[in-house]
Design brief:
Pfam families: PfkB. Belongs to the carbohydrate kinase PfkB family. The chain is α/β, with parallel strands linked by helices. It has one domain: UDP-N-acetylmuramoyl-L-alanine:D-glutamate ligase (3-Layer(aba) Sandwich), CATH 3.40.1190.20. Helices cover 38% and strands 22% of the residues. It has a nine-stranded mixed beta sheet with strand order 5-4-1-8-9-10-11-12-13, with helices on both faces. Strands 3-2-6-7 form a four-stranded mixed beta sheet. Helix 7 crosses helix 8, helix 9 runs antiparallel to helix 10 and helix 10 packs across helix 11. Bound molecules: adenosine-5'-triphosphate and magnesium ion. Adenosine-5'-triphosphate binds next to helix 9 and helix 10. The site of adenosine-5'-triphosphate (ATP) has 23 residues, from helix 9 and helix 10.
């Protein structure tokens, strides 16, 4: 089975248990939960039995070791996670507003992950892995971006493949250099996994069909469009396949896209058809939103099969 590599932030998340508009007064929090989009993605790969590794950097503190222990438990190669003495692991403090949107306090830019650079362990993973999964957040900060771009160049040069989840908020698009990096990765992408607004942000197209056409003409083999509670769609040279959403009660939406991506990429690389990969990824995303904590909702194959058996009857 191809070995999947990702690069980027490994964080903990603390979640306010009351809803409201931000952190203006003391309030109860739950956590720390292991987090960071690339970490959640790779955890989902590992839980499905995929062969996977992550290049990242954490502080020598409980938050860093919590993440390493979780990823190692789920079978991830953690040799590329550098533990930085005297530095701290990044935190995301999340509070939900009444309308379901989120307010964040992030310490990522001041944390160990900001100083990510290529280490011997990282370089050797770039030589031994066959597939690289890039997340836009890893392209937004210079250290992580340099490592991510190097991994892309090395793995693609050896004939490997690339999946790309832009995972990007419009507010950070003006970050110096980010546009060029997003374009550079897109030019090398085999499997592209955007959500709706990202599809338009990155192509400049006004409607979905034009955006998809632009991407296929650019040489991207497969596009998987994530539609949140509306399900998902797959596009390739043969056409379009849609999958209806499974009906679930949404408890915590963070991480759904990462679990969806982890499941889709694992299954496609293992030889599943696009439809089968889409069906299981749709279930992985839906199951993820039913659990509190970004990484707590990643699923094993047995959990996905049971979840599908319970929910597909709703169609
Ligand atoms: P994020 O970056 O916040 O994790 P995303 O935009 O990358 O999210 P979503 O579209 O929110 O990803 O979720 C990924 C997939 O998970 C969806 O395409 C769908 O298959 C499934 N999913 C997400 N939310 C729900 C939901 N409320 N009900 C059913 N399925 C869902
Ligand atoms: Mg996302």
């Amino acid at each position: 089975m191809p070995k999947i590599l990702t690069v980027g932030e490994i964080l903990v998340e603390l979640i306010a248990t009351t809803k409201g508009d931000g952190f203006h007064e003391p309030q109860p929090l739950i956590g720390p939960y292991p987090s960071g989009a690339p970490a959640i993605f790779v955890n989902q790969v590992g839980r499905l039995g995929g062969d996977a590794a992550i290049i990242g950097r954490v502080g020598d503190d409980n938050f860093g070791h919590l993440n390493i222990a979780r990823l190692a438990r789920d079978g991830i190669d953690v040799s590329g996670i550098e533990v930085a003495q005297g530095e701290v692991t990044g935190c995301a403090f999340v509070r939900y507003r009444e309308d379901g949107s989120r307010s964040f306090v992030f310490t990522m830019a001041q944390s160990a992950t900001a100083a990510l650079s290529i280490t011997g362990a990282g370089a050797s993973l770039m030589e031994s892995c066959d597939h690289i999964h890039i997340m836009g957040t890893a392209l937004s900060a210079s250290g992580m971006a340099e490592v991510a771009m190097e991994a892309v160049v090395r793995i693609k040069a050896r004939g490997g493949s690339l999946s790309f989840d832009p995972n990007i908020r419009p507010e950070i698009l003006d970050t110096p250099g980010l546009r060029a990096r997003l374009d550079g990765v897109l030019d090398q992408t085999d499997i592209f996994l955007p959500s709706g607004n990202e599809l338009f942000m990155l192509t400049g197209a006004r409607d979905e069909a034009s955006a998809i056409r632009v991407l296929l003409e650019r040489g991207i083999r497969e596009i998987v469009l994530k539609r949140g509670a509306e399900g998902a769609s797959h596009f390739d040279a043969d056409g379009r396949t849609d999958i209806a959403p499974l009906t679930v009660e949404e408890i915590d939406p963070t991480g759904a896209g990462d679990c969806f991506g982890g499941a889709f990429v694992t299954l496609r690389l293992a030889g599943a058809t696009p439809f089968e990969a889409l069906r299981l990824a749709n279930a992985a995303g839906a199951r993820a939103v039913t659990r509190t904590g970004p990484m707590e909702g990643s699923s094993t194959r047995a959990e996905l099969d049971r979840f599908l058996a319970d929910h597909e009857t709703d169609y």
